[in-house]
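okkk here we go again. third time trying to get the UAG bound version out, last two times i messed up the smiles copy paste (missing a bracket lol). double checked this time i swear
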Amino acid sequence: MQVRELIQPLLLHKATGDLTTEIKGIQLDSRQVQRGDLFIALRGTKVDAHRFVEQAVAGGAAAVMVEESVALPEVPVIQVPDTRRAMAVVAAKFYGYPTKELKLIGVTGTNGKTTTTYLIEQLLRHKGVSTGVIGTIQTKIRGKTLPAKNTTPEAVELQKTFRMMRDEGCEYSVIEVSSHALDMGRTRGCQFHIGVFTNLTQDHLDYHGTMEKYREAKSLLFSQLGNAYSGQLENNPVAIFNADDEASRYFMNRTAAQVLTYGIDQPADVRAENIRFFSSGTSFTLKTYRGEVPVRLKLVGKFNVYNVLAAVSVALVEGMDLQQIRSGLSGIKGVTGRFEPVDLGQSFSVLVDYAHTPDSLENVLATIREFARGRVLCLVGCGGDRDRSKRPIMADIAVKYSDYAIFTSDNPRTEDPIAILDDMLTGVQSCPKERYAVISDRRQAIHEAVRKAEPEDVILIAGKGHETYQEINGVRHHFDDREVARDAIVSRLAK
Ligand SMILES: CC(=O)N[C@H]1[C@@H](OP(=O)(O)OP(=O)(O)OC[C@H]2O[C@@H](n3ccc(=O)[nH]c3=O)[C@H](O)[C@@H]2O)O[C@H](CO)[C@@H](O)[C@@H]1O[C@H](C)C(=O)N[C@@H](C)C(=O)N[C@H](CCC(=O)O)C(=O)O
Ligand SMILES: Nc1ncnc2c1ncn2[C@@H]1O[C@H](COP(=O)(O)OP(=O)(O)OP(=O)(O)O)[C@@H](O)[C@H]1O
Ligand SMILES: N[C@H](CCC[C@H](N)C(=O)O)C(=O)O
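finally!!
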């Protein structure tokens, strides 16, 4: 595509150089530029990429997009007021507006995004349609998987992935939409067909500052629904809300889309009643505006009933009937690293879970409490360079809901692991010391939990779920809670 065509949708820009120059790709990282790329200079949290424009051109960039005027006579220079904003517009144009050819479903909320996207994918598969998925664990395109760096990728990668999905024959794309992505405009230029809200509780205050700003970022998915290109409702979008979460009303008042609600406690269009929990699953009556049907799931916990109701709401909007939904739900599998048992036939249970927020930790521990016949042992840490204010709250929840807590390291990133643990300990000052231990080394902590377990006890290893690394001092070392738990169980069984 020529530069002049690429920048045609940009209202405010100054362009110099030969605008018939062909652009073969878009790149944000000067170190990865390929011949013919447009290099877009973003002002990051660590560096301002304007200082890399010359390096990008030397590496083969055919044009650059910048906010400051730069003297680069050899290539076209497009100067815009905001490269981040312009990036979303040109990325959608470059890849031919792929979300107009896909049914795009966005899921946002503090917890449950990954689980809900996977449930939606599994239900849509049952309907017989092909669905691509983008989220925290990985990107999935018709059986192929690609690694994920962010929960929601930057606009260029996002649009490129949608084009790949379309080329591979996907009809739907279901994506996790993080508050960071909404705030940074990564999803501008996406035409969403459905927006789903799971819940809003504390997280990411390091980034957003206050809960109000966090909520405001999340609301963008709904206020932008249907307005991506023309300001008109092009595709009759639907917004799906959790009626039991008070933030839903705030979002409802900000969307022009049709609204559907789901819930357990409050009146809603899609509800679960007569819920019964077992250690291996859940049953309930699914009541919808299209009738009711009994449902049995292999997932445990009230929080998963919410995730299922959100996915069922999407299935209903997409025309699936209740019998199809019911049989789809009976075959549904849990998500890797979410409530995942490590079972070598030992006399106690070990569960690995991705709970890394106060609300998710509380939900998971409350669920375990309901069926645990022995003690509950909780191993938990908090990530470095992230919301510090959640640390004491999570420690407090750990001791409140378990019989014994082991505080350990999660991903310390660039922080001192001991300082993170000290922040956590401020939350348990009034708790008797014999109720918890502090073992900074995560491997040792897992071995200690397994050594301590008695028959019927349940050990929850929280925080890292599917992650296969531990990031210490900016370096990622291989670490998988499930592998370490297995080793610990094997050595205990050998004694
Ligand atoms: C705060 C934030 O969002 N950071 C994102 C941002 O990184 P940054 O601002 O630190 O980038 P930087 O290192 O300062 O570099 C600025 C620019 O210079 C470029 N550069 C840099 C060096 C160089 O030699 N040449 C060069 O061109 C970089 O490619 C970049 O475009 O731009 C990067 C590239 O696009 C992102 O990968 C990175 O996400 C990091 C990994 C991150 O951790 N983000 C978190 C906060 C985040 O977005 N999380 C949410 C999930 C939250 C949740 O729901 O749990 C998510 O959606 O992932
Ligand atoms: N609806 C829910 N409400 C509260 N907690 C939940 C819910 N669903 C899942 N959880 C808990 O949150 C953890 C993370 O779940 P999931 O990965 O689905 O959320 P997420 O929103 O994608 O998280 P992230 O974006 O941070 O990766 C799970 O391991 C579980 O402990
Ligand atoms: N997307 C989340 C993941 C947190 C996972 C947890 N293991 C941690 O490292 O804090 C975040 O970036 O806050």
